[in-house]
Write a structure and sequence with these properties.
12% of the residues lie in helices and 38% in strands. By secondary structure, it is mostly beta strands. It is globular and about 45 Å long.
Length: 81
Amino acid sequence: MLNGESQIDGYNLYTNDLGEMGRWVAVYVSTDIYCNQIYDESVFNDFVIIELRYGLEEKLIFGNFYRARIVLLNQMRNFVP
């Protein structure tokens, strides 16, 4: 799915832009709210993190994460502390 196919009037769309390589995760934020996407290096790609600002000093960090149960179980089995 392309970002242009998922636009909603009055909202900004933030995605992980994975396309065919993984799960497409999205967050819609009203255009009335100041927002930045936060990018982070991770072995997990199926997530979107955004920072919402409101007021003069207040901000909220919000994350949307997709984790399939089978993928999580396989990763836990292969985890070596």
